[in-house]
Amino acid sequence: MDDCELDFEEESEEQSDAEITLKQVSDAVVYNTDWTTETIISQFSRGNINLYPHFQRRDAWTIIKKSRFIESILLGLPLPQIVLAENRNERGKYLVLDGKQRMLSLLQFMGLIEGKNNLFNLRGLEILKNLNGLNFKDIERSPDFRDELNQFYNQTIRSVVIRNWPNEGFLHLVFIRLNTGSVQLSPQELRQALFPGKFVDFIEDISYSNKNLQILLRISEPDFRMRDVEILLRYFAFSFFISNYAGNLQIFLDNTCDYLNKNWEANEENIKLRAEEFDKSIEASIEIFGAGRVARKWTKNGLEAKLNRAVLDSISFYFSDDIIRKAALNNAKAIEEAFKSLCLESEEFRTSIGATTKSLGATSSRFILWGQKLREVLELDFRIPTFDSGRIKFSGFWKQENE
What we know:
The protein is built from 18 helices and nine strands. α10 crosses α13, α11 packs across α14 and α16 packs across α18. By secondary structure, the protein is of the alpha/beta class.
């Protein structure tokens, strides 16, 4: 299993949907501040810097990489800047847009974060080799390292602070631009900080331990870029609110988090039930297609290797229904052939899962076309979404008694 790189194909949120005006950019206040290590630690300890509670689970750096970052601080070497956004509702409190792994390493080194790497021993230092094998407490207690300790606390870490930002879309734009040209991070990481609440904690918790999702993604531990959480969020968004989708994926997912956080108590039972149905849908998908073949599109050259999240949205949407899922499992070979034929024979379906998957037209097309194909193969008369008057309409798979 590959613990680092998930191979995703389709356009996701890693291109910004934000509609930001020049005036909004001009009105945002961006300034530099030279905080010391000690200042950053103090801000965190006072609760002014938000590394959301579960972030340490998504620890991406090895101990050696963490150790060499600490060595750079101790040597006074230049460090990459940290980018913060001030909370619009609480002045003096900040979200971290860029630099979370560096901050996490710093706090773990000092023993301030719970988890397996808390108070780690330094390893792999290339210059301060005499510190290898020591942790922060060892250095703090020894008079021999007084100079190193003073350098550690007094090291300047350039920080960029954004104030008066107009909306969440602006921060999504900044976040994505910060990662342009480097290894891109999932915007789900930012969403976790922007929309804290019980629903967001719930999807992080279950993605952390969902074995079927990890089998699907071919990982053995949670993805540090949180793309496993995003897949789960997309399922909930389309499962609950497909009729509200207007072509802006970022806003759609943001609104789902916001609404289900605020209405957690009223929806908790249904959310947990749908989480179980999602897990069953993934398990069934793996059984039908094979773990390395789920949500991979067919071309004239064969089955592509990259997982397509737009396809996965459609598969999990239908397979989360108990009747449809069981019928599909009983007709696994026919389902696999049906998906293959849809990819090869329907230009509309190919377009809907191709380069631009977020548009309203593409989204409605793939849900409708896959639903039609399933009805045909399974010979079941369930309802599928329709597209009418510029919006997706859906009122459940099965007619209710009072309809």
